[in-house]
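As the next step, I selected for study a record pairing a protein sequence with its backbone structure tokens, which the following lines show:
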Amino acid sequence: MAENLDSQAWYEDALRHTGRALLGLYFIMPGVMKVTGWQGSVDYMTLHGVPLVVPLLALTVVLQIGGGLMLATGFRARIAAFVLAGLTLLINVFMHDFWNDYESADKAHELQNFVKNLGIFAGLIYVAGTRPAT
């Protein structure tokens, strides 16, 4: 009986760590891509009417890479998840605003990204609201 509980706890921990690592990777990769494609990110944000583009882009990079690493490693994962959830909502409103018309924009693609980000948001608030295993 105790052996079953130990294997179940191991299984749950493995799933929890894997899920956090994948959520973290979801933010780390775009953060790095924003650094390597800085001007493209500036242009995209400008197209969408984001104010204070350069400081907000720099902050986004720090939050995505730093928060993603925190989430992936489990270091203050609940706080990182909460912050990244807020960032995800802001990105959705400003960058995946499918309700606006932009030159060469694909509304269906933006709607898909918007809904996908709501799923990511849901996972993040789940992590933020879940007590660490004891």
Q: What stands out?
A: The mean pLDDT is 92. Residues 2-128 form one domain. The two ends are 19 Å apart (CA to CA). The helical segments are 2-36, 38-47, 53-73, 77-95, 107-128.
